[in-house]
What we know:
Elements: H1 2-31, H2 33-47, H3 55-69, H4 75-84, H5 89-103, H6 105-121
Helix pairs in contact: 1-2, 1-4, 3-4, 3-5, 4-6, 5-6
GO molecular function: peroxiredoxin activity
Protein name: Carboxymuconolactone decarboxylase
InterPro entries: 4CMD/NDH-1_regulator, AhpD-like, CMD-like
Amino acid sequence: MENERYQKGWEVFKVLTGTDGVAELERIHALCPDLANLIISNGFADIYSRPGLDLKERELVTLSSLITQGATEQLPMHVNAALNIGLTPKEIMEVVLQCTVYVGFPKALSAFAVVMDIFEKRAIHISGTGI
């Protein structure tokens, strides 16, 4: 049963994060296998695999939560995951903009810098929509 749970989480994790996420998880596993197991079993098998929200919706929630916390260290993985599962760059930018009203400019601008960096690395170009 535990192996099935882990495998379920592993499959979701790979879909979301691709080879970059797998490489990062391998680094974590080398130092702390228990943490890597918790990430996959709890985060991705128990939470991301639940019915009720699809992966795009879950990433929207995750992005807004990370922005709200100012947790920019985890933001690159989740911006990439959001793109990997089909969220558009404009949708991601809209999440940052929406959060600005509730979390303030410093956290939103920090998130914006991370998003811009990811877009640049992935050669994503979007034009401004104006306000």
